[in-house]
């Protein structure tokens, strides 16, 4: 890549590099602190900057200070709207949120690169920065104070968002889905009347939502009898276990309550319980 190409499109290459780097961090090192840094930039600065680059390839349209400050405000609005859209379409998750945001940035970068290429060289916005020694001396005390306050506010905002991302990631709700299904794979048509001493079959499902894997014990109990082990299951995050389970009710023809208990490893009491009421009957054939 020539210096002239980097001078013209260096900011756009950096945006693409940010998306690629953050994708690698998310998939290869999700616990890295770099994920927070990249996430803050990808949420609070890159979407708005890419949009402004696409809208204003001319360096005279807006100056660098306006471009910088507007990028932050636009990024917050764009990130919020995109997140709202995916919430009601595909559902919010780390991968869906990042994917949609990265798609927006890449599309805006391509449009910005095309429009910048069509702009005459003397009007084109470039990344070349000229720092004059007299910059600070030319500012009056009020301008210096506003400049420092702006920089400080941006740093504090970045730290606050980084902290929010870290807290939300480490305090995300962890729960387990526990359910029973009837013969049709639906929450209906559960067995109610059976022949005494014959088994019943139901489908039991468990879905684990948590950062770490979890060991579960699945038990059943009939009336006030002791719990009987059905299976031990180990599930990772978002992993589901679903299987048909055969239960042998009591021999006596009577109404019986079948309780399914889900235990987490190391806990004395069940995490959740489900129950069915069945009636065991002593069917006899009527004489002809």
Keywords:
288 residues; alpha+beta; Immunoglobulin-like; 2 domains; five-stranded mixed β-sheet; three-stranded antiparallel β-sheet; 23% strand; elongated
Explain the layout of strands and helices.
Elements: H1 3-28, H2 34-44, H3 46-55, H4 64-87, H5 94-118, H6 135-138, H7 141-170, E1 175-181, E2 193-195, E3 200-209, E4 214-222, E5 228-235, E6 240-247, E7 255-264, E8 272-281
Helix pairs in contact: 1-2, 1-5, 2-7, 3-4, 3-5, 4-5
What does it look like?
The chain is an alpha+beta fold and 288 residues long. It has two domains: 127 residues, no CATH class; 107 residues, Immunoglobulins (Immunoglobulin-like, Sandwich), CATH 2.60.40.10. It has a five-stranded mixed β-sheet, with no helix packed on it. The model has no long low-confidence stretch (mean pLDDT 79).
Task: Describe what is shown at a glance.
This protein is an alpha+beta fold.
C-alpha-based Rg, rounded:
31 Å
Helix proportion range: 40-55%
Structural class per helix/strand content? alpha+beta
Number of helices: 7
Catalogue the unreliable spans. Answer: none
Shape: elongated
Q: Number of domains in the coordinates?
A: 2
Residues in β-strands, percent? 15-25%
- Secondary-structure element order, N to C: HHHHHHHEEEEEEEE
Order of strands across the main sheet: 2-8-7-4-5
Biggest sheet features: 5 strands, mixed
**CA-CA gap between termini:** 96 Å
Mean pLDDT over the residues: 79
Number of strands: 8
């Amino acid at each position: 890549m020539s210096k002239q190409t980097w001078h013209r499109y260096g900011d756009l290459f950096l945006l693409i590099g940010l998306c690629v780097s953050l994708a690698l961090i998310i998939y290869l090192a999700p616990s890295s602190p770099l994920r927070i840094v990249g996430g803050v930039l990808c949420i609070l600065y890159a979407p708005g900057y890419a949009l402004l680059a696409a809208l204003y390839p001319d360096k005279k349209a807006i100056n660098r200070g306006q471009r910088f400050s507007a990028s932050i405000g636009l990024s917050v609005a764009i990130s919020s709207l995109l997140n709202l859209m995916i919430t009601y379409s595909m559902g919010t998750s780390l991968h869906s949120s990042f994917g949609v945001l990265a798609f927006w940035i890449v599309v805006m970068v391509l449009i910005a690169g095309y429009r910048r290429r069509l702009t005459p060289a003397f009007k084109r916005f470039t990344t070349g920065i000229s720092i004059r020694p007299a910059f600070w001396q030319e500012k009056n005390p009020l301008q210096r104070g506003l400049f420092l306050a702006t920089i400080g506010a941006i740093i504090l905002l970045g730290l606050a968002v980084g902290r929010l991302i870290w807290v939300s990631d480490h305090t995300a709700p962890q729960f387990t889905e526990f359910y029973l299904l009837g013969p049709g794979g639906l929450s209906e048509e559960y067995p109610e009347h059976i022949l005494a001493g014959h088994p019943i079959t139901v489908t039991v499902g468990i879905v684990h939502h948590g950062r770490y894997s979890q060991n579960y014990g699945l038990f059943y109990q009939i009336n006030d009898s002791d719990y009987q082990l059905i299976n031990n299951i180990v599930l990772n995050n978002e992993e589901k276990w679903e299987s048909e389970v055969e239960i042998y009710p009591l021999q006596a023809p009577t109404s019986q309550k079948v309780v399914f208990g889900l235990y987490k490893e190391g806990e004395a009491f069940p995490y959740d319980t489900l129950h069915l009421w069945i009636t065991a009957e002593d069917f006899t054939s009527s004489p002809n």
